[in-house]
Design brief:
Blueprint: H1 8-16, E1 33-38, H2 46-61, E2 66-71, H3 79-88, E3 93-97, H4 98-101, H5 120-127, H6 130-141, E4 144-145, E5 151-160, E6 175-178, H7 182-190, E7 194-197, H8 203-208, E8 214-217, H9 219-224, E9 233-249, H10 250-255, H11 258-292, E10 296-298, H12 302-311, H13 314-322, H14 324-334
Parallel strand pairs: 1-2, 1-3, 6-7, 6-8, 9-10
Antiparallel strand pairs: 3-9, 4-9, 5-8, 5-9
Helix pairs in contact: 2-11, 5-14
């Protein structure tokens, strides 16, 4: 995938909409705070293009007081490695999918509840509202900081090298890679698939060597990671929505003056809003792009998959795990589940 899918007009329009921020004046040219910002995504992914924009604006707005360096594509370790590093302070900022964050902050996985969100209107009402605030509070309790609005990973779709997935029956016995995330493992095991947790930096080789037949990710990931080279079919199940949470090490965050914290939060949130728009646009344009690269798209009936989950104890089990408060906030946004 190339970022040219995000138009020049979109980028210029987003930039023009940014509020002016008063620069913090300071003496000297060396940065007082030199921080690492790690991600797992390919450099061309909107997570990284928008993160770099935020980093540049933070440097400018703080007069060079804060200088972050972006490390994309798991350069500093796998997602699970980086989660440990941001907790310990080996990296100061890390952009992590809620599906992986759930291994540390279980309630973060509620955003990935199978077939819960029908569209983005419901997603952002929840994430920018009471449910998002509840998740952020739990992140703080875990020893990390969530300094901005949630970013967008997108609705996840199933890809396969062997067959299209049209109905839940097509998943029975299907060997599918899932991230090391409890909710996604649960979704696919309940649907009868052979769910195999594999870190993202090992995904391409696992598909290439047929360790697994398929995987599930938003289209932007399928494109930027060139998974179309080792996959044939895309089933637009939209089975799970996944977000990205910019995380900060608590000590590194606490070392920043309050005014600098305000600037960092503002710029990361604004970049996140632009990144949301990027993913929404790419979700449309990438269907055509991936088709030209040889992938075949199918549009299964999502209700068949949701009905199979509802026939099991899936929703009741996860309600018990997340607790009545969090589940109530989810259902307040999306309606009754199960």
């Amino acid at each position: 995938m190339k970022t040219k899918n995000v138009t020049r007009r979109t980028l210029l329009g987003a930039a023009a909409a940014l509020p002016m921020i008063t620069l913090i004046s300071r003496r000297g040219s060396a940065a007082e705070f030199s921080y690492k910002y790690a991600t797992g995504q390919d450099p061309t992914h909107p997570v990284n293009t928008r993160a770099q924009e935020a980093i540049d604006k933070i440097r400018e707005a703080t007069g060079g007081q804060v200088d972050m360096k972006l490390f994309p594509a798991n350069q500093l370790g796998s997602d699970t490695d980086l989660l440990a590093q941001v907790r310990a302070g080996g990296v100061e900022f890390f952009n992590l999918a809620t599906s992986i964050l759930a291994t540390l902050v279980p309630v973060a996985g509620i955003t990935n509840t199978g077939f819960a969100f029908p569209d983005y209107a419901h997603v952002w009402a929840a994430m920018d509202g009471a449910l998002g605030a509840h998740i952020a509070a739990q992140i703080v309790k875990s020893g990390l900081i969530a300094p901005s609005k949630m970013w967008d990973n997108g609705f996840r779709q199933i890809t396969s090298s062997t067959k299209p997935i049209n109905t839940p029956d097509d998943l029975v016995g299907f060997k599918i890679r899932v991230p090391p995330a409890p909710m996604l493992t649960s979704v696919f095991k309940t649907l009868g698939a052979g769910a195999t947790p594999i870190n993202f930096n090992e995904l391409y080789s696992a598909l290439q060597t047929k360790v697994v037949e398929g995987q599930e990710n938003p289209l932007a990931i399928t494109a930027s990671a060139r998974l179309y080279e080792v996959q044939k079919y895309v089933s637009m199940t939209g089975h799970v929505w996944d977000g990205y949470v910019p995380l900060a090490n608590r000590r590194a965050w606490g070392a920043l003056p309050a005014k600098v914290q305000e600037i960092v939060s503002h710029e990361l949130s604004e970049a996140g809003l632009r990144q949301r728009g990027d993913i929404a646009s790419l979700s449309v344009s990438l269907r055509q792009d991936l088709t030209t690269k040889g992938m075949t798209f199918v549009d299964p009936n999502r209700e068949l998959f949701r009905a199979k989950l509802a026939q099991s104890t899936f929703y009741a089990d996860w309600k018990a795990k997340f607790g009545a408060e969090a589940w109530g906030l989810l259902e307040a946004s999306v309606g009754k589940l199960g």
